[in-house]
Amino acid sequence: MLLLLAACPLALLATPTRLLAPLPTPPPPRVPARHMCASVRFRPASRDDVGPIRQRMLRELMNPLSLEHERFLVAEDGEGERVGFGQLRPLPDPGLWELASLYVEKPWRRRGIGTSLVRQLLQRHVAAGRREGHVFLLCLEPSVEWYAALGFVPLASVAEAPESMAFEIAAGGVLTRLLGERLVCMRGRQ
């Protein structure tokens, strides 16, 4: 969110001749050595995962409600440490679902873990006889392209969102505006 300002290259403030020179590539994020070669595996969450997931969500200012382990998929490293999670939860509107609580620990980001979590959650959803077009999500505007690459489409207006998401959209919209962001509701491919 606010880190986007920090990513602005200072070279743009330099002399015009400097603007023509290529900007140096930033170094990759430092990742502890044990994370470099560790394999990631995905598993259904257990009851023991709910407490740590709730704690992480509270620290990240995510909605910690509706955390039932049966809905979650967990990503863990080769040592069994939780590195990400996500869930598909039913909405009160019959037959509609929300992709929610998607999180990947910072040292593990940009490695395809979030993408794998979403794809596997959707595969489980379809395997249970449900449709991707009945899955909705809320995200911040900078994430729209990422979700679009996974088949989600932004709704033209909030009025198209399921009625049961109205409160979350209203509350989330206020909070995100205070943070200088915009909340977007998306729907899975039809």
TrEMBL record:
Transferase as UniProt keyword: yes
GO molecular function list: acyltransferase activity, transferring groups other than amino-acyl groups
Keyword Coiled coil attached: no
Residue ranges of domain N-acetyltransferase in the record: 29-170
Gene3D superfamilies: 3.40.630.30
Keywords, sorted A to Z: Acyltransferase, Transferase
Record CDD domains: NAT_SF
Pfam families: Acetyltransf_1
The name this protein goes by in its record: N-acetyltransferase domain-containing protein
